[in-house]
Design goal:
This protein is an all-beta fold and 140 residues long. The chain contains no helices and 12 strands.
């Protein structure tokens, strides 16, 4: 049985180095992210994800549901505590993506120390934007 560990887009946490603006749209549960500095057109957005149940600790897929205008998601990372458990890069994604999760040694199993999903966004210009509806991790 597959379980979805998901959060709304408006749960977005701006990286401390980012100058982006985040506007939450409570009607849709999304976050609209825009750059504010022409010299800062890329950066990280983070999401905390609930822990999986003890009987389903294996992380299977990462899902990022979004739409964009002149922006791409280049990298998706999953963190457990301070360890990078999964990295998918060079994605150049312009719409929703689903990624199979595999680690350096095969399967990725939750270690009980916190779970986060991060996306690295690249904007083409100051008029670019991205709307993040939700992020999720499936487990089995």
């Amino acid at each position: 049985m597959t379980t979805y560990l998901a959060t709304h887009g408006f749960g977005a946490i701006k990286d401390s180095n980012s100058t982006f603006t985040i506007t939450t749209v409570t009607k849709t549960g999304s976050a609209v992210i825009k750059p504010t500095d022409p010299n800062e057109l890329s950066g990280w957005i983070h999401y905390t994800i609930q822990s999986p149940s003890a009987d389903q600790p294996n992380l299977k897929t990462a899902i990022v549901d979004f739409s964009s205008q002149s922006a791409t998601i280049e990298t998706v990372e999953i963190h457990m505590a301070q360890k990078n458990a999964f990295v998918a890069d060079n994605l150049q994604a312009t719409q929703a993506i689903t990624l199979p999760i595999t680690g350096y040694a095969g399967a990725v199993t939750f270690n009980g120390k916190g779970l986060a999903l991060s996306v690295y966004i690249v904007f083409s210009s100051l008029s670019s934007s991205i709307s993040l509806q939700s992020v999720s991790i499936t487990t089995a």
